[in-house]
């Protein structure tokens, strides 16, 4: 008599199929949660920038486009572009892991609201594409 110890080919194929199904379910969920963290980082950076701009305005009675003057540092992978005038400022943020058409924007004062990557509907609102 033979003592068969091990798995049959059918058993191995069934396990492989089950692992494949679980991976097909888990990978999209993981991708979606990564995108959420990128948008959360951009929102947080724009809110931080808003606070820095208001502190700068209280001291200097003007707004600035220089992140260094605001002592503002964006999160890793986030690029923030700032436009300012004497009556307000606007900023947009994009993340290097997302497409250039995806991102967030904010504005204050009577400055023209940014149109790329999205347009906020009211001053002080952080609007994101997703």
Describe the fold and architecture.
With 130 residues, the chain is of the alpha+beta class. It has one domain. 40% of the residues lie in helices and 19% in strands. The chain has 1 helix and 4 strands. It has one helix spanning 9-60, and strands at residues 78-85, 88-95, 103-109, 127-128. Strands 1-2-3-4 form a 4-stranded antiparallel β-sheet, with helices on one face. A hairpin with a 2-residue loop joins strand 1 (78-85) and strand 2 (88-95). It starts with 8 loop residues before the first helix and ends with a strand. 22% of the residues are buried. The model has no long low-confidence stretch (mean pLDDT 90).
Low-confidence stretches: none
Ends: how far apart?
65 Å
Portion of residues in beta strands equals 15-25%
Question: Secondary-structure element order, as H and E?
Answer: HEEEE
* Strand numbers in spatial order across the main sheet: 1-2-3-4
- In terms of structural class, how would the helical and strand content be classed? alpha+beta
> What is the averaged pLDDT score?
90
Domains counted in the coordinates: how many? 1
Helix-residue proportion: 40-55%
Count of DSSP helices? 1
Provide a quick synopsis of the model.
By secondary structure, the chain is α+β, with helices and mostly antiparallel strands. The chain is built from one helix and four strands; from the N terminus they run H-E-E-E-E.
